[in-house]
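Structure ticket #2291
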Amino acid sequence: GTTTPWYAISLDGQGVARSRPTSYRIAMATVGFDPLAGLPDYSDSAFNWDGEVHLVQFHTQVLAEYRAALEELGARVYDHLVNHTLIVRMTPEVRSAVEALEVVRWVGPFHPELRLEPGISQALAADSLADDQIYNVAVFERGPEQKGLVSARIEAMGGTTRGVFPEGFRFQAELTPALVQAVIGMPEVASLDRWAPGGPDMDIARDFSGANYLESQTGLTGQGVRGEIFDTEFNLNHVD
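Resolution: structure written out below.
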């Protein structure tokens, strides 16, 4: 029937920590897969993988030692994704060395299809993407460097950008369908989704963020946690 993988960690080579069940399923908005059981087929994709940004999955939870080993080999660790998987930028030579590490379970491409808002691929295939659509562009690294590189390329290719601030990861760009294909293939670009004005849809924030589920499982209410509120307007009937 079904198999549940387990793992345990020994930090000193002597004692072994408690064994625990896990999953190696890489679940994205558009697809979910265990890379050793089968990979999504992007042979007909309109988007070309950049050849540099990879997913590296380990047998256990990601330890600091794992990250250090990748960086020592020359890899650039971008972020944690899901279920023991890191997003890593590296050359083919470094990839070969990373694959040889005993703690590594699988290495594969972080394909542009996995970085896109659901529906964009289908709209591109159906020739229904607007020529003047504004997109949110997110880069992998915080700060001005990658944002500056990507926004400059977009401007050079005929697109327009806005909100390219030194802080954060995101900015907006007006892109044609051809530019969408070019931008999502850049190794600095983490994701692309269609921009829309802010609206009164945050009444379901606790649902889609998982806050209600967390409270039902743990009793954690969020009291004492500081957050940001994005309002669409003033309540002119408020007593203050």
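Closing remark: The two ends are 62 Å apart (CA to CA).
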